[in-house]
Amino acid sequence: MTESNISIQQAFADMGDPRVVGRTTHKLIDIVVIAICAIICGAESWVDVEVFGKSKEAWLRQFLELPDGIPVHDTFGRVFGQLDAEAFQQSFNRWVKSAFTVSSGQVVAIDGKTVRRSHDKTLGKKAIHMVSAWAQESGIVLGQVKTDEKSNEITAIPELLNQLYLKGCIVTLDAMGCQKAIAETIIERGADYVLPVKGNQGNLEADLQDWFDYAQQTQFKETPHTYAKTINKGHGRIEIRECWAIDDPLTFDYIRHFEGWTGLRSIALVRRERRVKEQVSVETQLYISSLPADAERILHCSRLHWSVENSLHWVLDVVFHEDAARNRTKNSAENFTVLRHIALNLLKQTSTRKKTSIKNKRFRAALDDNFLLQVLQQI
Question: For residues 296 and 226, is the Cβ–Cβ distance under 8 A?
């Protein structure tokens, strides 16, 4: 990565303390570390964080100074509500770059999620929408930025991309992120892209669809291409995925609306068929990519993008109960989201003898100080 390994304490040491100088009795880094440990062990509110801290005070004193003991829950809430969210995210990004390796060729899925209970109708505050970068194979959150709502993802994505170390990675997004400026930013960051195309790009989708319709009618006999197919069975269903990828220069001569896409090298069609008993559903999706026309690779990337729903969003909702969280004061919801991401990264990277769910790892960490220490070795 871009810098030598640093600890959580080092990564977050330069954050500005929002409290009044001379009127603080608790160290900021102590507050941050207690909150991280508490969320690893199952805390879902500032009250839970206080309960954890007081229950584990003797253990925490092995690593933290705690000059005035464990803060009360109001202190945790007030500090994280006032703490600059952007600075907190930047510290998180710096730690991730140092602590975790993202190998070249890995898929990084950019996707958004609304923290549903973070709204405050009384103050007219909408629920926050977080756009996150998820390294699928490493199982870590690389970074995140907040938007006021999903429609603002287009402006948030380049901001997030510019915060990340992406050299050699393959970035995937949903169709909303299929924008020329975003493709350019991805290439500038030293990465490749696989982007789904829909009607938000003028006539590009129609041009691609017409070309693949023609190619399929001729069974691709006149079109150099690659082809890949996968079949997966399980839980009473069969899923068949096929991909056709083309990078023939003559193809681009017939497509009117491909100009301006930085790094564009190939186009692809992915067909997904799902069979559940007697029911069959089929959907197709068009893609543009800066990768060569490697159908197997593009199919793999497209599939990994949508697995972010199970690997990240489902875990945050079902295991961390993010959608039920009612942290609403100032920056509290945004900063609590970052704390969850820190805890998830640490738990994902903690190996056990047997395959263990994140839920069970959290429960074990709450009961077993030695296992909690194993989780915390990465900070």
Answer: yes
Give counts: helices (H), strands (E), the chain.
Answer: 16, 9
Q: What's the rounded Cα separation, in Å, for the pair 176 and 185? A: 15
d(CA 323, CA 30): 27
Strand order in the sheet with 140-147: 140-147, 129-135, 107-114, 170-172, 192-197, 279-289, 266-276, 237-246, 226-234
What are phi and psi for residue 372, nearest 5 degrees?
-60, -40
CA atoms of 361 and 359, how far apart (whole Å)? 5
The residue extents of the domains of the chain are: 8-99+329-376, 107-312
- Cα separation, 216 vs 169, in Å, equals 31
Above 90 in pLDDT, residue 251? Answer: no
Contact present, 293 and 265 (Cβ < 8 Å): yes
Closest C-alpha to 35, from 319, 332, 367: 332
Which of 40, 146, 139 lies closest to 96, judged by CA?
A: 139
* CA 170 to mean position of chain CA atoms: 14
Output b/e per residue, 283-305; b: 16+ Cβ within 10 A. Answer: eeebbbbbbebbbebbbbbbbbb
The overall pTM is greater than 0.85: yes
Q: What is the pLDDT of residues 91-148, one digit of tens each?
A: 898 888 887 878 888 999 999 888 766 655 555 567 778 899 999 888 899 999 888 6
